[in-house]
Write a structure and sequence with these properties.
The structure holds 2 protein chains of 2 kinds. Chain A is an all-alpha fold. Chain A is built from 7 helices and no strands. Chain A folds into 2 domains: 170 residues, no CATH class; 67 residues. The two termini of chain A are 30 Å apart. By secondary structure, chain B is an all-alpha fold. The longest helix of chain B has 17 residues. The termini of chain B are far apart. The chains are: A mainly alpha, B mainly alpha. At the A-B interface, α1, α2, α3, α4 and α6 of A face α1, α2 and α3 of B. Bound molecules: zinc ion (ZN). Chain B: This is Putative cobalt transporter subunit CbtB. Chain B: It comes from Saccharothrix variisporea.
Chain lengths: 247, 61
C-alpha cells in the first residue's frame, strides 16, 4: 500500500473489474441497439465498397466477445493511469480519505472523458457515420476529451490555490470556473459533421446513446469506487477508532 | 482526520512513465488504431473490438 507498485496493482485490478462490469453491461444492454442498427445497415443496398463490412471478418459472436474484452483491456489500462494520477497528485483533495479522492476523481474523469463528449458529439451506433469524416470526427472527439481534462485539472489547481477562502465560497468559485470552462468547450468546438441518416430510427439511436453512456459511467465510476475500496482499509480502521473513542 | 494514512500521494518511480505510456498505447490500439501503427493488420483489430468501440462512444466509420 505504501509503495507505488502496490497502488498501481490496485489500480489495474480495479480497472479490470470495472471494465468487466462495463463490458457485461455492454453485452446485455448496448448490444440490443447495436443489433438493431446493424439490421438497418444490412437493409441498405450494397453500393459503396469503401465502408468496412461487418460480420465478414468475424461473426457477431466474436465481435460481442471483442466488445467485452475491449472494455476489460481499456479498464486495465485506464486503471493504471488512474492509480498513477492519484499517487502522483500533490493537490487533488490531499486531506481527504482515499475513497473520497478515488470516487471524486472517477466522477470528474467520467464527466470530462465520457459525459462531455457524449453531450457535444453523442455516440453513434453502426450505420450512422460517414467513412470519409471518421478522422475529423475522431480529432474533434479526442479534442473535447483533452479540453475537458484540462478543465478538471484546472479546477483542482484553482481549488488548491484558493485555500485562503472559506469552504463554500471556494467551492462556488471553482464550480463557476468549471462551468465556464465547459461552456466555452461546448461553444468553441464545431458541430458533428455527419447528419443522422433518415433510415435510422430515433428510438434505436437514443437507446444506443443512453446505453453507451451507461457503459462508460460503469467503467469510470466503477473504477473510482473499486479503487477506493481497495485502497481504503486504513480509513475504515480510523473510523472505527474514532467511533470507539466517541462511545 | 489528517493522519498520514489518508494520503495516497507517493513518490513516483521513473518506470511509472513507461507504464503510463504503455497504458495509453494499449488504449489507442483497442479504441483508435485504424492503420497508423499496424497497417493492414489494424483491420482485424478494428473489427474484433468494433462493438466495444461503439459501446464506449468512440467515433467509428
Ligand atoms: Zn463502426
Amino acid at each position: 500500500m505504501t509503495t507505488y507498485t502496490g497502488v498501481l496493482l490496485r489500480g489495474v485490478g480495479a480497472g479490470g473489474i470495472a471494465g468487466l462490469l462495463a463490458g457485461l453491461f455492454g453485452l446485455v444492454v448496448v448490444e440490443v441497439p447495436i443489433r438493431a442498427a446493424l439490421a438497418v445497415e444490412e437493409a441498405r443496398p450494397a453500393v459503396e465498397s469503401g465502408g468496412h463490412d461487418h460480420g465478414e471478418m468475424f461473426g457477431r459472436g466474436t465481435q460481442m466477445v471483442g466488445g467485452v474484452l475491449g472494455a476489460v483491456i481499456v479498464g486495465l489500462a485506464i486503471g493504471a493511469l488512474f492509480a498513477t494520477a492519484l499517487a502522483g497528485s500533490r493537490r487533488w483533495f490531499v486531506g481527504r480519505p482515499p475513497f473520497t479522492r478515488s470516487v471524486t476523481l472517477g466522477a470528474a474523469v467520467f464527466g470530462a472523458a465520457a459525459l462531455l463528449p457524449a453531450v457535444k458529439y453523442p455516440a453513434n451506433p453502426p450505420a450512422v457515420g460517414n467513412q470519409d469524416t471518421v478522422d475529423y470526427r475522431t480529432m474533434l472527439y479526442l479534442g473535447v476529451i483533452a479540453a475537458g481534462l484540462v478543465v478538471v485539472y484546472g479546477s483542482s489547481y484553482l481549488a488548491s490555490r484558493l485555500t485562503h477562502l472559506a469552504g463554500p465560497v471556494r467551492s462556488t468559485v471553482v464550480a463557476l470556473a468549471a462551468i465556464a470552462g465547459v461552456a466555452v468547450i461546448l461553444l468553441a468546438f464545431p458541430a458533428s459533421p455527419d447528419p443522422i441518416p433518415a433510415d435510422m430510427p430515433s428510438e434505436v439511436l437514443w437507446q444506443f446513446r443512453l446505453a453507451s453512456l451507461g457503459e462508460t459511467a460503469i467503467l469510470w465510476l466503477g473504477l473510482g469506487v473499486v479503487f477506493g475500496l481497495l485502497t481504503d482499509p486504513s480509513v475504515r480502521q480510523s473510523t472505527a477508532r474514532a467511533q470507539a473513542l466517541a462511545a | 482526520m489528517t493522519s498520514p494514512a489518508h494520503h495516497l500521494s507517493l513518490p513516483i518511480p521513473r518506470w511509472a512513465y513507461a507504464v503510463a505510456l504503455l497504458a495509453l498505447m494499449v488504449t489507442w490500439l483497442v479504441l483508435q488504431e485504424n492503420g497508423i501503427a499496424l497497417g493492414h493488420a489494424a483491420e482485424s483489430l478494428h473489427e474484433f473490438f468494433h462493438d466495444g468501440r461503439h459501446a464506449l462512444g468512440v467515433p467509428c466509420h
